[in-house]
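FIELD: query
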Amino acid sequence: MLAVLLLIGYRASQHKSEADRERPPADSGQVQSSDQASGPDPASGPELAPASDKHAQETDASESEMNIDVTRDQVHRGDLLLVNKDNPVPEGGAETEAVNLYRHKELLDGFGLLDSSIMLSPDLAEKFSTMVDAAAGEGVKHFIVSSGYRDETKQDELYRQMGADYAMPAGYSEHNLGLSLDVGSTLGEMSDAPEGKWLTENAWKYGFTLRYPANKTAVTGILFEPWHFRYVGLPHSAIMADHDFVLEEYLAYLKAQQKASVTVDGKTYEIFYFPVAEDTTLHVPAKGSYDISGNNTDGVIVTVRL
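FIELD: result
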């Protein structure tokens, strides 16, 4: 059960999709706004506070604020980096911990491999295993990984084979970043197989998002890829699922709104966007354990678990 409370006004304009096809419906209890009982229009998103409420008014910093030192290069590190045709993998940002899964069979838990060349970081392999183990508990268990981390040489080969509609040039692919993987099913095409349908409906619960859905081609510039899943982490994947955001839209939303609050499985998070142009100290109006990710363009997102 997941409840989402967004505390600021949803004024950011959403990109219109090229197609009108709806994504599969989420579980009935997936998302609730704070006033759901009064019957708000679900298409309008959760109710938001006025823009003037952005960033809580400063009180006693020792009680309600964290000061976090960040460097300029933090903009180009983290799980929320936007990599697309306009935003390349940052220098030094490529995955460095990826291992050959065929040679590390201890990491193969609940899924198979298309061939012996597949590479993933142990951390991402573990996150994926947790997700497919949950699927197996519902009788969906024919997953294979067909691609994971790719170096620029392999990405260039793929780009030449498939073209710009289905692949990015070397240095502009999430596969070079190491946070994406292509998932298949031994039962058939992912658009029809139980594995594809299960991931489309449930991947957000485990921090993953379908990166190139059919109704967002105008935003992503990539045709529908029912096999390509990107790790962004919770609670971000939950908000993206609630609002039918792809990563481009979600990062634009955070930048425009600057603050959001969300509760996922009983855990409350506050999320803040800060522009970062140089080494600086962030004054975060919340206290708790936190993660920081850059957006790979102009700022960072601080996610605080209260």
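FIELD: remark
Confidence is low (pLDDT under 50) at residues 1-60.
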